[in-house]
Design a protein that fits this description.
Blueprint (H helix, E strand, L loop, with lengths): L6 H30 L6 H5 L9 H24 L6 H24 L3 H25 L1 H27 L18
Helix pairs in contact: 1-3, 1-4, 3-6, 4-5, 5-6
Length: about 180
């Protein structure tokens, strides 16, 4: 037999999930960026030629904070849709794209692998699009919360490709362990 929950019970269930999921996703995103040394404080990144459309560094922190909160809320909504068809698949695709998203900063900022980061962001964008479509079938509101993330991923992909184009051999700009960099 199916259980019927009262609206107040459903709201509290969503609130509890969101109270756990939103900070978790936000903290994972912050940790990924910090551990990778992302941003303008990164000496390697400072050496790169940036595209004209590059926003100021603070804009990334603001944008990613908002996006991670929205992603957490979207996931909480889907998690709260108890026995939704394809719910497990939607959550799995979302978590896969999130894991790849968290791997992007270390790949780009720490490993200096701009070409690999360019490919990775396309995979993330594809999986985020699939997750959004799957979320739409479960709860349209959850999918709508992911739309700004999809738009930002498109912009981030454009920036990554432009950085790759403007900085051929960018992975060689950083000195190796114990080495010194000499630019002629």
């Amino acid at each position: 037999m199916g259980e019927i929950a009262l609206p107040d019970q459903l709201r509290m269930s969503f609130f509890r999930r969101a109270l756990f999921v939103v900070p978790l996703i936000l903290l994972l995103g912050i940790a990924s960026g910090r551990l990778a040394g992302s941003g303008e404080g990164n000496p390697w990144f400072a050496l790169l030629v940036k595209p004209a459309i590059m926003p100021p560094g603070w804009a990334f922190a603001v944008a990613w904070t908002i996006l991670y909160i929205a992603m957490g809320l979207a996931l909480a909504i889907v998690l709260n849709a108890r026995s939704a068809p394809r719910g497990g698949l939607a959550i799995a695709v979302f978590l896969l794209q999130l894991a790849l998203n968290l791997a992007w900063s270390p790949l780009f900022f720490a490993a200096h692998a701009v070409k690999a980061a360019s490919i990775l962001i396309l995979v993330i964008l594809l999986l985020a699009g699939v997750a959004t479509a799957l979320f739409w079938k479960i709860r349209a509101g959850a999918a709508l919360l992911l739309l700004p993330y999809l738009f930002w991923l498109c912009f981030a992909a454009l920036l990554t490709f432009q950085i790759d184009k403007l900085n051929p051999g960018a992975e060689r700009l950083a000195p190796g362990p114990g080495g010194a960099q000499i630019r002629l």
